[in-house]
Each structure stands twice: as C-alpha cells, then as structure tokens.
Amino acid sequence: MSVSPVRNSPPAPAETVVGATVQYVIDTLTMRIVSQEYGADERLPSERQLAQDLGVARNTVREALDQLELRGMIRRRAGSGSFVTYDANGASESVAPVAAETGPLQLQVVRGILEPEMVRLAIVSMPPRQIEALGQTLSQMEAVQTDAGAFVRLEEEFHRQIAAGTGNPLLIACYNLVIDARRQSFRAAMYRRHLTPNRIAAYQRGYNALFNAIAARDIEEATEFMKLSLIEDQKLLMQED
Fold first, then answer.
1. pTM above 0.85, yes or no
2. Which residues pair with 83 in a beta bridge?
C-alpha cells in the first residue's frame, strides 16, 4: 500500500538517534499534526503545557520539537512559540530532486528492498512506547471511512513510525526519500480512483494484522504483510498502465 503526496515541505534531513521518551513525544505530536488536531499555521501548546500533557520533562519536549522542525513539520519562532508548517491539503509535488525524478516502478523496487527489512529491524528495536504510538496512529486510520486523503496521510505516518523504530539514522533518511517520492502527483491521482471505502476497510484490516504482528514481535508475519502490500500496489500500478 502506498501513500499519496499531501504537503509542501522540504525533504527531511537525516535523523539522529533519539531516546525512547523523546521518540514517544515526536510520534505523539506527529500524529496530532498529521490528523490535523493541530492544523496548518496553528501555534502548538507551550513546552510547559506539552510536558505536563505528555508527562515528560521540558527538555524532552524541546528535543522533540527540534526534530520536528528538522522534518519540516513545524517552525519555531523566537518569543512566539512553535507553529505547524505541515499542510495536509497542500500541493502534491515532491520537492526532493531525486524523489521527483523517481518513477512509479523505480519506487516499487526500492520499497521492495527497504520495507521488509525495515519492519524486521523495527520489531527487534522498537520500545513499548513506540509500539503504543504506532497503535494510536492505527486507531486514527481505523476511524477513516471514506476520506482517501486522510487515510493516506495516516498511512504515511504509520510507515514513518516503523522506519523510526529501527533506530538506524541512515535507513530513516533513505525512507524519508521514499516517503517524498510517494508524494508525487501520480500517486494522488491513483488513489482518487482506487481507494474506495471498501478498499479502505480492507487496508484497515491488513494494518491491524501488521500492528498485531509488530506488537507480538512476529517478524515472519510482519515481513510477509509488507511483501503482500507491495504486490497489491504493483497491481494498482499495472491498472494505471
């Protein structure tokens, strides 16, 4: 399954490995931004408020905000706070040159190389808080019935959290390019035609099974899901030819 382009932002730089508590804050805030609980241009709660809300130290929140700014999801203004720059309804063209030059079949080849190994490494490395945050994103996905755009935004976040769960900054950086390539206009058009309510429901069942496999640390089941989802995407691409 693939993700449609949905926002205007610079390609995310290579991420540093962060602690489990910082990653929990990153995942929680990212989910709130992607689901538009915090909308574009909206000011985030203060560091103090976020620390109280999430039960963490303020320096943990500050480090998480630094990472979100590096990803282009927020902008921090001295004396004013942090503002959402993620635009869920923005133009769909990728802005990373290499991603913009990547064709649909080339993207599928790279996904086939990365995603099965990515989920295997995530299962080995993800701490319970990251798995919990992944489950929260799944809950958001399962609440979607007909909005294809909302579903693919959350699907993107689900995959990004798996990549982050590997704890491997080079793999994370590579997968950021994959996500950027997924945002090309051909994917948006494809999903408008093919992501029906029935297909959304089928994907939701599949992602529920994937999450259960990750939570159970079942590498074989999770990697098999990734391979099958790539086959389904390949079928959609063939229908577009």
1. no
2. 43, 75
